[in-house]
Amino acid sequence: MPTLVSVFDLPDDTALAIRKLKGRGFDEIESYAPAPFEQIDEAMDERPSKVRAFTLVGGLTGVFTGFLMQIWMSWEWPIKIAGKNFASIPPYVIIGFELTILFGGILTFLGLMLVGRLYPRPLDKAYSPRFSAEEFGVAVTVGERDVAEVDALLRSLSAKEVTLLDD
Amino acid sequence: MTPPPATAAVDMMRPDTIPQDSQINRDVMSVTKGVSWQWGLMLGMALIGVAQAVFTLGYQTYVGLGVAGYQAPVFWGVYIINFVFWIGIGHAGTLISAILFLFRAKWRNAINRGAEAMTVFAVLTAALFPLIHIGRLWKFYFLIPYPNQRALWVNFKSPLLWDVFAINTYMLISIIFFFVGLIPDIAIARDRATGVKKFVYTILAGGWQGTGRQWKAHNRTVLHLAGLATPLVLSVHSVVSWDFAMSIVPGWHATIFAPYFVAGAIFGGFAMVIVVMIPVRRIFRLEAYITDYHFENMSRFILFTSLICGYAYGAEYFIAWYSGVEFEQTSFWLRVFGPYWLSTWFMISFNVIFPQLLWIKKLRTHVPFLFVLCVGINIGMWFERYVIIITSLSREYVPAAWGLYIPSVAELSILVGSFCWFSMFFLLFLKFLPIIAIAEMKELLIHDKAHAAAGHTQEAH
To answer: Which backbone phi and psi does A30 adopt, to 5 degrees?
Structure first.
């Protein structure tokens, strides 16, 4: 199926093009942007990023690991220090807190790699270095007979260029 | 003065013309291109400094900690001072990248990358000092709770152990935060590099293309990491301060220590950011991005935190007097008029008195003045830790047990080495990674461009 790659100057135009294409029923769309723009990301997918679940799981794992580790280790070899409980909760809050942050941060990063598919892999054919300059790209995969129509549509939506990629 | 609107900040940051193929990419990436002899000379000097410190460390490890100036009753010396100093330097970077991010302070964009890099390098420097300080380097793993034949665990009630966890967490989170911010910029470098560099950047960028999905995940990640790093950075120096405050040494046992240390850390950290960014901006001609406006804002932070430090110093003395505890009173009296009076007056003048000049608007943007002032602040902050640690330990309860501590040559050699170690990382960073967060700056530039276009259309209609 052929892919049409269109180039835009402004984020609003890019977002509009994505919405129009989706409205026409084209679902295989990819956007390329040099900087984060909410309108584009929203047009691509309205649901919040799944990264947030990773942070939650990481943070909870961290806080439980922190407290359970300290309490278990204190009981495993009980030594009375300054007349305090063997497992004394107030001082354990600190390491519990630090591990919450540590595990939360590491899992958030893992989430970014998984959700954003960030691992070494070949780049898309539609991608071009101009999208890491200051231009925006929208790639849409369409059926043979829709090419002309979509091309005209994109141009009417202030696309600077529309190129056809065959594969 | 009310902050100028965001658009004005953008105006100040924007280069005069933005041609279609991103001026900012070329401006910022040009920093990494080519190696001048000055850069080589500085790196060479840094490497020599690191080498002599490694030699000293080897010698100290061989003959024992006696080569450090440690003698009864002072067994925490320059190494611990350096540790607190370098951890403090890191705090400004996290403040700029996390706290100012959450407050949506747009001016942070031009300086956050450099400050974050400094955080990472400062923490990498600081983390060495507990190891250097323990003397028996090969036993460092005793600090980590691990199952062992002695069935003995670490003491989780000790602030020294809290520190192990706080510092390691801070180091890892700072590195992650720094790297996440870098990913889009590494992709920019990848698209413009060739050969081995392209290969390395391709691996590091991990297939970043700026797709909607990637940006969305990236935004969310930065938000969450900022949310996690904000309480973390406040906790780290608090935990460091508890290394002192949890003990009963006069001059240390104070509830004010945590906020006092955090404010001092931000104060010293911002001063270091200015000291480093002034030459970087000048040498690599980044005046279009790092403007006087940034320096003015940082100066205000310095002024504000200087006032907090001044208040903390005052409160310490007042409480020492008001408590009626003889030991506290003596300890603080001897700080100012005892054998270490010079370091105390350095601390007060560099940290509280001289920064008051920043009330004058002209001086807040006077670059040479700022440079000199901030070098002074760094000296002052180093002496603040010297005063807290040394004067308190050398004048504890029983006068018969008092002593005098003088830093040894070995300690000074490692002090110099730590600055070289930090500079080495920073110099290498300049040549491999973009010093300005390009993607974040572009967000402002393109936003501005979109506004201009919208205004234009409206006028045309």
So the answer is: -135, 140
For residues B171-196, one letter each, b for 16 or more C-beta atoms within 10 angstroms of the residue's C-beta and e for the rest, the string is bbbbbbbbebbbbbbbbbbbbbbeee
Q: How many structural domains are present in chain A?
A: 2
- Interface probe, candidates A79, A106, A108, A119, chain B, greatest B C-beta count within 10 A: A108
A61 and A111 in a single domain? The answer is yes
**Shortest distance, CA A113 to any CA of chain B (angstroms):** 8
Residue A93 CA: distances (Å) to CA of A75, A87, A89, B95, B159: 17, 11, 6, 23, 12
Size of interface A-B (CB pairs under 8 A): 209
Closest to B119 (Cα-Cα) out of B148, B150, B95, B138: B95
Q: What is the CATH number of the domain that holds B184?
A: 1.20.1630.10
* Beta carbons of A132 and B210 less than 8 Å apart: yes
Please report residues of A whose CB lies closer than 8 A to that of B155.
79, 81
- Over residues A42-82, the pLDDT tens digits come to 888 888 889 999 999 999 999 999 999 999 998 888 888 77
ipTM of the complex: 0.93
* Domains held by chain B: number: 1
* Residues A91 and A103 reside in one and the same domain: yes
Give the structural domain span for A70. Answer: 51-115
Interchain CB distance below 8 Å, A43 and B212: yes
In angstroms, the CA A130 to CA A135 distance is 6
Model pLDDT for residues B209-244, shown as the tens digit of each residue: 999 899 999 999 999 999 999 999 999 999 999 999
Asked whether the beta carbons of residue B215 and residue A36 sit closer than 8 angstroms, the reply is yes
Using a CB-CB cut-off of 8 Å, the residues of chain A touching B217 are: 49-51, 111-112, 115-116
A120 contacts chain B (CB < 8 A): yes
